[in-house]
Amino acid sequence: MQLDYDALAALAAILRTGSFDGAAAELGLTQPAISLRIKTLEDRVGAILIRRGRPCTATPTGARLNRHAEEVGLLEKTLTADLGGLLPDRDRPLRLAINADSLATWVLPALAEVEGFRYDITVDDQDHSADWLRRGEVSAAITAHGAPIPGCDATPLGALGYAATCAPGFAARWFAQGVTPEALHRAPCLAFDRKDRLQHAWAASALGLRVALPQHYLPTAQGFVEAAMMGLGWGMNPVAIAAPMLADGRLVELIPDHRISTPLYWQVSRQTAAALDPLTKGLRRAARKILEEPGMT
Predict the structure, then answer these.
(1) Residues of the chain with pLDDT > 70: what percent?
(2) CB atoms within 10 A of CB 159
(3) Superfamily grouping for domain 160-261
């Protein structure tokens, strides 16, 4: 099937901006011209590509076509470099799925170091970020899944270490008799969102059994640490963030040195692996500075 890449550019712009008007402004066209391009493309592929709303979102077919357009742009970027800059660079944003703790601890320096990309980052739990790759909505992801997703290459990065932490006063109030199933069942804990199972994993590791945990949901990595220091609850904080607070006593560990780690992998579509090689190398360099060797606690 031969596709109209101007129409694909319109599709990508709608998904970036969330509206037909936003896409028109970005591309320097009228809103009717954008609508016509999308209608023509939908007729061509025989499927609806955009869910109209605020914001507009992609259908599964629309997401796959958008990823195709992104991959073509990355391949053109590689070809441009190979041909000494003779071809135009379409400069499409690179869509990535990355977990919040990686963004907060080690990923941003790598993104800043590598030139030539604009980023469109989706934040999701490391146990679920691979789903974005499977659906064709991103070109690469940082994930806890080591087995390569079909059509992708997986690069091990290391493991992000976590400590179960809380404020000293919180520990005195809720864990005066130690970390017991009863205490964990009563003491409020912090979770990033409903996908976040790190607290449950730590409790099972510490006690050898599953415990129902009362939870606050707080989707911010830095706010997570601050909430723990304020006594809102206990939670699993990356050691890379919590270390200074543990050192000066603003935080304490529920069980000293009983830590867990999450292995992380960089999964990238093979079609764009060559174009993304500078970013892959940058992420590996940044990971070596912060992440542990897999298996360490």
Answers:
(1) 92
(2) 20
(3) Periplasmic binding protein-like II (3.40.190.10)
